[in-house]
Amino acid sequence: MRISPRFVQVVAVAALPLALAACSPSSSDSTASAKQPQAKNLNAGLLTGTQLKKALAPASVFPSNLSAVSDGFSDSGEEFASPASRDTAKPDCTKFENTTWLDVSGFKGGVSFAQGEYANKGETEEIVQEIDVFQGTTADTVMRQIRAAARTCATFTDLNDHSKVKLSGSTTSGLGDDAYTMTMTSGHWENGTTLVAARVGNAVVTVTSTAGKDNGAANAAKLAGHLVDSLKAAGAKD
User: What is the pLDDT of residues 139-154, one digit of tens each?
Assistant: First the structure.
């Protein structure tokens, strides 16, 4: 039997309240949903890799005999990475010789980062800059662990020529919220290396310099100071 269009319309309208009643949440469900706390965004206010890239020092900050290394630049872009837990194993001292040596702290990196490298033609002199941003108070922990690793690695053996490397460090005043400078030397090297770690709020700057007859110290200090000022200007979160 064919049902008239009018009858179909009446049936549909009559069924509508039942459908709404079935789909509508109960008052208790609505109350529970309203009371559900929203998860806090731990990355709120932190600088992205794109912003950190802009905070890196330009070529004018580096000695004129150094130029940008083509594959020495990278950043995390607009996305934040998931924070990794800290490796609590004894630090591998030879990592201090890497161009990116932040992982001596037990952390592979922050939720965002940017880095760049400059070197002379023969790569006998180089300067590396890196900025990592961390959630919460992790940046404080990173600085503490860098100091702890430096104390553990006061002397260690170089992997390349098996020479004895000496590492000494001291707190650097007037540079960001916290800063620590280290010097590595070896009787087998023509020149030593200066490393600087500086914290600005949630960001940690790490610098490596072998440029200059002073174990790279002056160029490392100059670069670290520039990066700290750049982060302050960019609004690094306290």
Answer: 999 999 999 999 999 9
